[in-house]
């Protein structure tokens, strides 16, 4: 049985073979299996946590390639659905020379957008200790209903719910709808991760204290604010701590947040009592920081996600 069930998007990113090339100028692309929730599932598996993935792909070569990729990583794909009604989600992604990321999504609609409450494997939700989801799913009607339904089932079964704010503004009709949708996701969760950019989007402030003054609710046990190379800040109902990251040579930040999320959940599963102890929370975030940092040292998300051994080697250094 999986310890963490990740629900959300599983798609192929097409990335220009030459970095710094815009989507229009790119002469060739390479396939990069990904999707935030899928990256977290793989990140957990590499850290030795039993993970499962729930979502929907097309019954087409890309869908099967994605399922095979997750299985090869040891992720349980039994809750993954295949549909003949739509094609697997695809995205064209480029990191332009000016450092801006460009996205173009195939969504007419893609299979992930058809994933609805009837497709939720409730037995898998109730069997896992943690349900993890993010706001990419909340941007479209069916997966939003599916995720909120799955979260309610997990809560009713007494499971932990984890949520990554993971704002992708172009997926939403407008900023106000995105902010309202994200707050709905937040309300379901015990554990939340967001970046300082997302914090500013939601609250107007980049200060982690803004989490407490404007986003806090009774169910929350742990919030982690990520700050890129500067590390992260954890907040519990009664305490807060800043944890610096480690120095690495970053070549591609894709998936750093997903790696961090996997590290945070892996740490929490190993040490559930850490929530009551600032020193252990510092260590937990340091572990997650290292997972995020190592994810930036190679191109792509899935190829770069580190193993537990490489994280522990840096932790001990
Ligand atoms: P996101 O992908 O959500 O924007 P961040 O870029 O904040 O997330 O990265 C997540 C975490 O990964 C950070 O909190 C930090 O711990 C680690 N990290 C990211 N980039 C670097 C970097 N260049 N050097 C060291 N650590 C990093």
What's the arrangement of secondary structure elements?
Blueprint (H helix, E strand, L loop, with lengths): L3 E4 L3 E6 L12 E6 L1 H11 L4 E8 L2 H12 L7 E4 L6 E6 L5 E6 L4 H4 L7 H6 L2 E5 H4 L2 H16 L3 E5 L10 H13 L3 E5 H8 L5 H7 L6 E5 L5 E4 L4 E4 L12 H15 L7 H18 L12 H9 L1
Parallel strand pairs: 1-4, 1-8, 2-6, 4-5, 8-9, 9-10, 10-11
Antiparallel strand pairs: 2-3, 6-7, 11-12, 12-13
Helix pairs in contact: 1-10, 10-11, 11-12
This protein binds adenosine-5'-diphosphate.
Adenosine-5'-diphosphate binds next to helix 10 and helix 11.
Number of strands: 13
The H/E string reads EEEHEHEEEHHEHHEHEHHEEEHHH
Global morphology:
globular
The strand line-up of the biggest sheet is 5-4-1-8-9-10-11-12-13
Q: Please count the helical segments.
A: 12
Output the structural class: alpha/beta
Strand content: 15-25%
* Fourth CATH level, the homologous superfamily: Ribokinase
Number of domains: 1
Our measurement of the CA-to-CA distance between the termini, rounded to an integer number of angstroms, reads 34 Å
Bound heterogens, unique: adenosine-5'-diphosphate
Query: What name does the CATH topology carry?
Result: UDP-N-acetylmuramoyl-L-alanine:D-glutamate ligase
Radius of gyration: 18 Å
Detail the poorly predicted runs.
none
Q: What can be said about the biggest beta sheet? A: 9 strands, mixed
Helical content stands at 25-40%
The whole-number mean of residue pLDDT values reads 95
